[in-house]
Specification:
Mean pLDDT: 94
Structural class: alpha/beta
Number of helices: 7
CATH superfamily of one domain: Vaccinia Virus protein VP39
Strand content: 15-25%
Number of strands: 7
Order of helices and strands: HHHEHEHEEHEHEE
Largest sheet: 7 strands, mixed
CATH architecture of one domain: 3-Layer(aba) Sandwich
Radius of gyration: 16 Å
Low-confidence stretches: none
Helix content: 25-40%
Length: 196
Amino acid sequence: MNLSQYLDKEGIHLSSEIIEKLENFASLLHEWNQIHNLTGAKSIDAIYINIVDSLYPLSFIAKPKTLLDVGTGAGFPGLALAIALPNTEVVLAEPLKKRVSFLKYACIDLEIFNIKVEAKRVEFVEHTPFGLITSRAVTNTKLLLDLTKKISDKKTEYLFYKGSRVFDEVADVQHQLDYDIVQKNQRNYLYIKGTN
């Protein structure tokens, strides 16, 4: 299947220009991954599935003006979201040098102008409070909320891409959260619409 078919299957509607840019991102990542081992997604199909996983929440979240992705890795979900949301200012926080090199190269090669790559851990990022903070496969919910305290406020929303442990994690902090958990395939999307 091509990327359009994967997206259509999940009801994700994007312009042909954005889909083409996402396909170019997939090709670039596939090429780099063979040398630098940036992600476990080894085939173009596997990369497409990761892109769809990254973008599925666009069907239920509010579009943010600013977005921080914590521990972007090879670009999921942050780089994929930045391509799909060209009017959103996106900051990618990623401490690993080879991944940072890839992210910076991808932004230049793919002409993505709404991204700033921060080669540091999230607790060292300085910024006014973000509209949305995302993270996939990085630490637990409580720690993520603690690490991003200085760059969030009451209006900040969070989108964490989680597995089955999300229910235990939320139990620790649910008294202070307004949240939904959206389940799709093997993924639990934890969408926090506010903290008390």
